[in-house]
What we know:
The complex is a heterodimer of chains A (126) and B (143). Chain A is mainly beta and 126 residues long. Chain A has no helices and ten strands. Chain A has strands at residues 7-8, 21-22, 26-30, 34-40, 44-54, 57-64, 73-76, 83-89, 100-104, 107-113. The mean pLDDT of chain A is 81. Helices cover 14% and strands 36% of the residues of chain B. In chain B, a hairpin with a 2-residue loop joins strand 3 and strand 4 (81-91). In chain B, 24% of the residues are buried.
Amino acid sequence: MSTTELDTTNTTEPTAQTHTWRRPRYDVLESDDAFDVRVCLPGVQREGVNISVDGDNLSITGTRTHSAMAAWRPLRRELPEGDYRLNLRLNVGVKEANIRAHVEDGILDLTLPKADICKARKIKVN
Amino acid sequence: MKLIRYEYPQMPSAGSLNRLFDLGMPTIERFGGLIDDLFGSEASLNQPAVDLYEDDHNFFARMELPGVKKNVIELEIENAVLTCSGNYSEKTKNTETDYSFQRSISVPDGVALDQVSANSKDGVLTIKMPKKHASKSRQILVK
């Protein structure tokens, strides 16, 4: 996909029967001092996004808000159901305290600043 | 006169196949999606999926358009065909990508076309199509 150090986990954990999850579309961009992760979470408000970092595992879940839809009768459905879940494995050092997240128009923008030891060091030629 | 793009019949196996790979449902149904996932392109956004609902007074169409601003969405009704389209570009620090999408659906019978409204929130576009009041049956007296 893109040339980044971030990798998806290959382990498939058993999903809970009561909850169907849907894997969101996402993109990872790398800049000099950070990784930018863009996750498509249409229908998810700011409050519905849950981001956690556990060791080298970045876990993102997005819960969709169903406003007044309960009374609607579906006639034709093309969109998948379920809330979003994405697990990414971080195999680079990331400053966990400085992770920034921003949600707008159903897109989650996540900035993961690289840890200092992982940044490319520029060496000046004298 | 407007033509509606032919929709591929839904593949019953796509759902289970997708679940196996933990992919979203539409990725295989609207082909291209899977290929796009592999190559990282967003081309499948060309034709977004639509859900159609109704309640007692309205029909509702829902479309997922993540990252699409309200002002780029164009909606048009012509001959009972509702077309939603848009062109926009997305800028990152050093790249700019152009996206476009278009999707047409046939408007259900009995919709008050002049009262159709749309609302975009959190990347989901909801189009509300109010039903015309059902004409009450009239009793005719036999003289």
